[in-house]
Amino acid sequence: MDVDHGFYRQVDVEDHAHYIIAFFVLVIGTVGVTGNALVMYAFFCNKNLRTPPNYFIMNLAISDFLMAITQSPIFFVNSLYKGWIFGETGCKAYAFCGALFGIASMINLLAISIERYIVITKPLQAIQWTSKKRTCLFITLVWLYSLAWSLAPLLGWSSYIPEGLMTSCTWDYVTSTPANKSYTLMLCCFVFFIPLGIISYCYLCMFLAIRNTSRDVRMLGSQVRKSSLVRQQSIKTEWKLAKIAFVVIIVFVLSWSPYACVTLIAWAGYGNILNPYSKAVPAVIAKASAIYNPFIYAITHGNYRDALATKVPCLHFLKQPSRGNRMSVSHSDSSFRDSVLSRQSSVSKTKFYRISSMSTTDTHIWSDVELDPINQSRRLTSSYSIGAPKEKELNLLISKQSEEKKGHSQNSSENKC
């Protein structure tokens, strides 16, 4: 039974339902605030992590941190009181923050996917598009876009009301009015489904680029070039980082999908089949999206683990194996690459030695890649530009030696005559 209670209806549910939700909200809030605070601390302390592509990761941690710290405490207190106790203004402020930070996280994931797409499929444009200035501009646009959708219910397009067990607030997707129905539809399309479609397209193109590059290198076979090997290794590194982002995106989408389904059911006119529990549980699952990313980084991101292990003593177990172990892997990979390069060296031993040594050096560079492969590629490009004049000098020296040999052979033939 629903009871009128001011500007909202107090639902008649068992007390233990409120307490169970309060427990889960407390866990989500504690883990979300602590985990994302550690992510921000690690990126702040480690200069190697403060790179333009990682600004998006930092921005995602900030939005998740703010989501957890603004939503969970209020949700928890309301659950203990078994109803909304902060008034209409508090409800609007709470729902506004939840919408702002939730939308910011989704659009930020879209920006990460586009950035990975440019780096992998359009490497020549990547340096320009992933500069610090452009990255900060994109992050600003993410927040402005999120702010626009969050302000709309406060300005009359839909409204913010309590939902579920009346212990949290969101936009009014239940009341069937033109404003509410249009806002719900547009919000789901432009904040969830369209970004999800763009993300899927970006990852499909990245997958095809990886497959085509690997196929091209295999087709070259014994005539594989040094630039092809470096390019393939660079794309593999970028793809590894893209897979980390893909895991983050999948977890986020799975967290918000039940909530999106509930809102669309109500939008379609079947809100009467939704009971308070079917509205409250998806809301809790959606707010839990803020807690997963720190665990994903701790599992997949070596530099993040090292930073935390160094700065937070109780997390020393996260530290990676010593550099010597990684170097042994690097040398074994180097020997394999040298054997491939030896098939194409038919000019001179001196020239082969130079290419082989360059291969060893590059293997070392890529084996210890940071989360900013653009900077690595810049250094790699500069090393080639420095080495180009040396190669010209070497070619001149070889041509001079060949001319001297021809001169000696002519002199010897004249002496015989």
From TrEMBL:
Membrane topology reported for the UniProt record: Multi-pass membrane protein
Location of the G-protein coupled receptors family 1 profile domain: 35-297
Entry keyword Disulfide bond: yes
Keyword Cytoplasm set for record: no
InterPro entries named among the record's database cross-references: GPCR_opsins, GPCR_Rhodpsn, GPCR_Rhodpsn_7TM, Opsin, Retinal_BS
PROSITE patterns on file: G_PROTEIN_RECEP_F1_1 (PS00237), G_PROTEIN_RECEP_F1_2 (PS50262), OPSIN (PS00238)
Xref: SMART domains: 7TM_GPCR_Srsx
GO molecular function (one): photoreceptor activity
GO biological process assignments: phototransduction; visual perception
Pfam family for this entry, one: 7tm_1
Subcellular location: Membrane
Transmembrane segments: 20-44, 56-81, 93-114, 135-157, 183-210, 244-270
Any one GO CC term of the record: membrane
Keywords linked to the UniProt accession: Chromophore, Disulfide bond, G-protein coupled receptor, Membrane, Photoreceptor protein, Receptor, Retinal protein, Sensory transduction, Transducer, Transmembrane, Transmembrane helix
Origin superkingdom: Eukaryota
Family to which this protein belongs: Belongs to the G-protein coupled receptor 1 family. Opsin subfamily.
PANTHER family with a match to the protein in the record: OPSIN (PTHR24240)
Function field: Photoreceptor implicated in non-image-forming responses to light.
Protein name, per record: Opsin 4xa
Source organism (scientific name): Cynoglossus semilaevis
